[in-house]
Amino acid sequence: MVDDIRRAEMKTYQARRSAERRARGLIPRTVWIRREDEEAFREAVTPYAEHARLLEAATGGVHLPAFEIAAIIRHHNLPYDPEDFVFLSRVAKAIALRPQESDWIAQRAADIIARYRLPITWEDLQ
Questions:
Q1: Does the N-terminal or the C-terminal CB of the chain have fewer CB atoms within 10 Å?
Q2: pLDDT averaged over the chain?
Q3: Are 72 and 78 in contact (CB under 8 A)?
Q4: Pick from 18, 21, 17, 13: which is nearest to 55 by CA?
Q5: What does the domain layout of the chain look like in residue ranges?
């Protein structure tokens, strides 16, 4: 019985996460490739997958340490300032710790979203 409840909860959670990801333009891809092409395929696909991870980190979908956010941006030469993405990924925490600065936090987040034309909203960050 507990397993059935847990299974149902996980199914609901996964459906919600999938809907949130799709709403941001993220899609899953599963493909079959030849074993000898695996390394080249990984090298070609990794920048796109890591870019999606950054968007999820900004919206709280996955937690990435600040150093990992910076490493992804620099390694793949993405057109972002690492500090901006670290800020976006910590918006909810910043508001919880400094509610008196919520207007400034919201404005900075809106500026970052607009500057990079990110497929996320203020509501996604909370």
A1: N
A2: 90
A3: yes
A4: 21
A5: 46-125
